[in-house]
């Protein structure tokens, strides 16, 4: 094997000093790689992803019901999933038929609605993977050690799943030893992009060849995401970013909301001063901001309220596992078994004080019905793709 292919072992190794997070040296690929670079990458990745001779029965059973219309690969063709060589935890009882059926139903729903002839339409539905700009793929976190790709969705347990990915990738050391307990990871490191292998790092290292490499990993690795009732996710985002002291979100978003949709033409410059004066955008102001056409003319939606179909591209990426916050504990246990990593890490206990679906009516009480209907239309893709019922009582008067 050429030396440059062998050196690609760096794809899965970190150069970290004890107890300190250090980003990898992902330099942009030089122009001297030539056309043979793609074949070199293919050769390395295929060797690296070889895994066991036969994929585990669990991964076979958890694979997608078929290839989506826009996802890569031939329809109906089953690809062998990457399963790394390691000791697996032995379970005395198999994953229940109910849990397997739950996943099959969720994946089938996405598959059906992503067909070009389905009745559901939303922006970007029918584009191909190659049509997605590089910057829109940065929510895909890759773990080469275990063959996993996670698309993180803010306000859907993503902090704990990022903890899990740090443990699995061994990307953070303390006293020269990788963290083993997700809850031991310092909070300031969890969302540190230098600790997560994202598509942006592929781009910096391999340039125009990065898309080709990502396609190989998307075909071979096990891909998952977690979702949540779209309206409840918005409530959670508002509570977290605008009801708590957050200087960044106050300056970037709250000030705009206050100027446009309230009587504060000259709001305080700092969030501390604003809170001291009892000034903050209302939930109604937040909804007005989301519905205002000017908002996305100024900048794209922030990731905390951007639609899941724009963050994770479920019609272009054939996810192997679709988890939900509403069934987080069961889904997390199921997923870690599917990934064959439940011998390495356990999902942290759920935080019980999260925003509940039953609160929706109270939060939307002061939102006009017409605005509620427009908001539903804005997030209809997420409601439908992931099986959340249309909140009819919330959308209609009487």
TrEMBL record:
Keywords: Carbohydrate metabolism, Glycoprotein, Golgi apparatus, Membrane, Signal-anchor, Transferase, Transmembrane, Transmembrane helix. Residues 1-13, 25-34 have a biased composition (Basic and acidic residues). It is found in: Golgi apparatus membrane. Residues 1-34, 49-80 are annotated as: Disordered. It is a single-pass type II membrane protein. Signal peptide: none annotated. Pfam families: Sulfotransfer_2 (PF03567). The keyword DNA repair does not apply. Its main location: Golgi. Its EC number is 2.8.2.-. GO terms for biological process: carbohydrate biosynthetic process; proteoglycan biosynthetic process. GO terms for cellular component: Golgi membrane. GO terms for molecular function: sulfotransferase activity. Belongs to the sulfotransferase 2 family. This is Carbohydrate sulfotransferase. It comes from Megalops atlanticus.
């Amino acid at each position: 094997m050429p030396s440059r292919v062998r050196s690609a072992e760096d794809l899965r190794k970190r150069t970290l000093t004890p107890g300190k997070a250090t980003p990898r040296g992902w330099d942009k690929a030089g122009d001297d790689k030539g056309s043979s670079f793609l074949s070199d990458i293919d050769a390395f990745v295929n060797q690296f992803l070889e895994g066991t001779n036969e994929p585990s029965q669990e991964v076979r059973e958890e694979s997608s019901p078929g290839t989506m219309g826009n996802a890569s690969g031939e329809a109906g063709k089953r690809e062998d999933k990457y399963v790394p060589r390691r000791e697996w935890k032995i379970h005395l009882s198999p994953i229940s038929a109910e849990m397997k059926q739950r996943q099959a139903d969720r994946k089938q729903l996405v598959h059906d609605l992503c067909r070009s002839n389905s009745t559901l339409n939303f922006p970007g539905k029918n584009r191909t993977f190659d049509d997605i700009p590089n910057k829109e793929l940065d929510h895909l976190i890759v773990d080469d050690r275990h063959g996993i790709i996670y698309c993180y969705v803010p306000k859907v347990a993503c902090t704990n799943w990022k903890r899990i990915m740090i443990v699995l990738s061994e990307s953070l050391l303390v006293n020269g030893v990788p963290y083993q307990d997700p809850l031991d990871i310092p909070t300031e490191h969890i969302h540190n992009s230098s600790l997560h292998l994202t598509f942006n790092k592929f781009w910096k290292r391999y340039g125009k060849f990065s898309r080709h490499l990502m396609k190989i990993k998307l075909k071979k690795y096990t891909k998952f995401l977690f979702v949540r009732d779209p309206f409840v996710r918005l409530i959670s985002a508002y509570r977290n970013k605008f009801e708590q002291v957050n200087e960044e979100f106050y300056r970037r978003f709250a000030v705009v909301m206050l100027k446009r949709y309230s009587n504060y033409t000259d709001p305080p410059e700092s969030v501390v001063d604003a809170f001291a004066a009892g000034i903050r955008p209302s939930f109604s102001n937040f909804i007005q901001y989301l519905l205002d056409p000017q908002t996305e003319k100024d900048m794209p939606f922030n990731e905390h309220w951007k639609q899941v179909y724009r963050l994770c591209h479920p019609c272009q990426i054939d996810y192997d596992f679709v988890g939900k916050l509403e069934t987080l504990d069961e889904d997390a246990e199921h997923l870690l078994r599917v990934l064959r990593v439940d011998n390495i890490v356990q999902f942290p206990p759920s935080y019980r004080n999260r925003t509940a679906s039953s609160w929706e009516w109270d939060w939307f009480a002061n939102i006009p019905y017409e605005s509620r209907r427009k908001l539903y239309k804005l997030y209809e893709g997420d409601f439908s793709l992931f099986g959340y019922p249309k909140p009819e009582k919330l959308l209609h008067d009487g």
